[in-house]
Amino acid sequence: MSDETGHRPQPDPRQEKFKVDKELLTKEQLNGLAEEYCTRYHGLNDTENPMDERNRVLEAIHKGELVVWFDPVENTAGLGVPE
User: Is 21 helix (H, G, I), strand (E, B) or coil?
Assistant: First the structure.
């Protein structure tokens, strides 16, 4: 018998996405993330005005339904569901 789990390389924790506390971001940064979320997920889906969703996205951030994730590999932040 061989234990293959012992031979697999472990992922580098410095390359893992992590959640950012929304309180650390400015209102402008949160607005920018909400706008980017609206245009990315609604802008190409035949939605006449994807920015109409911005207030709902901001409310979802406030309620914790969406969180800010930072990807250190890509050096980018974005919104997503909490894990």
Answer: coil
Token pair in block for residue 13:
């924790």
How far is Cα 45 from Cα 58, in angstroms, rounded to an integer?
Answer: 20
Please answer whether residues 38 and 59 qualify as being in contact, where contact means their C-beta atoms are separated by less than 8 angstroms. no
Segment 53-76 mean pLDDT = 93
Q: Around 24, how many Cα atoms within 13 Å sit in the side-chain half-sphere?
A: 8
Answer whether residue 66 shows pLDDT above 90.
Answer: yes
Radius of gyration of the chain (CA): 17
- Beta carbons of 58 and 31 less than 8 angstroms apart: yes
